[in-house]
Specification:
The chain is 41% helix and 15% strand. With 222 residues, the protein is α/β, with parallel strands linked by helices. The protein has one domain: NAD(P)-binding Rossmann-like Domain (Rossmann fold).
Length: 222
């Protein structure tokens, strides 16, 4: 039985992945909603506010179950539609804190456990982390930053397996909110289902130890 940490565990892709992995593995669910975390079928729950990465060390250091980790999946994040002209310092800080700094800090704190197991780190990025489109300046910039973090970590920690997943539109509450910002219709039947993406991530985690899946690009069919 492997041991995995999953952030963004109470919604969308993260929740689908937690529910899938928990059938066979020990899962540590990370989120900021204690009530929602309590409903998950997991071994442990780690209450973290990802907008305050400076608080992570105190929370993590008391968790002895983090000493041996087969993997961490970073699913939490924020996405708000904004052009450069319509952006603000607060919006930039929010995106980079949640999408880059929090991810980097939590990974840093979990490195001892990951090294001990020769574990995997999976970053859930976005198609905007490969090709930025108009009205996505802030979000895309943060996702390009996440891409750089993954590439650097792969070189710095050769014993770890570092993977990045670049999904297109996924049928989640975040996507519903984003479509509302775009004044567009939310059409979940046309998007990737969270369970589909969760199954792909589980396959990445289960890759035999002689190989690593560095990048996966997933798009809705049709």
């Amino acid at each position: 039985m492997a041991r995995y940490v999953v952030t963004g565990a109470t919604r969308g892709i993260g929740r689908a992945l937690v529910e899938l992995l928990a059938t066979e593995h020990e899962v540590i669910a990370v989120g900021r909603d204690a009530a929602a975390l309590a409903k998950l079928p997991v071994a442990e729950r780690l209450l973290l506010d990802l907008s305050r990465p400076e608080s992570f060390a105190t929370a993590v250091e008391v968790c002895d179950y983090l000493g041996h980790l087969d993997g961490v999946v970073h699913s939490a994040g924020v996405a708000r539609r904004a052009s450069l002209a319509n952006s603000s310092v607060e919006l930039w800080e929010e995106h980079f804190t949640l999408n880059v700094t929090a991810v980097a800090e939590l990974t840093r704190l979990l490195l001892p456990g990951l090294r001990a197991a020769g574990g995997s780190v999976v970053f859930i990025n976005s198609g905007q982390g490969l090709n930025a489109s108009a009205e996505s300046a802030v979000y895309a910039a943060s996702k390009f930053g996440l891409r750089g973090l993954a590439d650097a970590l792969r070189g710095e920690e050769p014993r770890l397996r570092v993977s990045t997943v670049y999904p297109g539109r996924v049928a989640t509450q975040m996507q519903r909110e984003l479509r509302a910002q775009e004044a567009g219709e939310y059409e979940p039947q046309k998007y990737i289902q969270p369970e589909t993406l969760a199954a792909m991530i589980a396959q990445i985690l289960a890759t035999p130890p002689d190989s690593v899946v560095t990048e996966v690009v997933v798009r809705p069919r049709g």
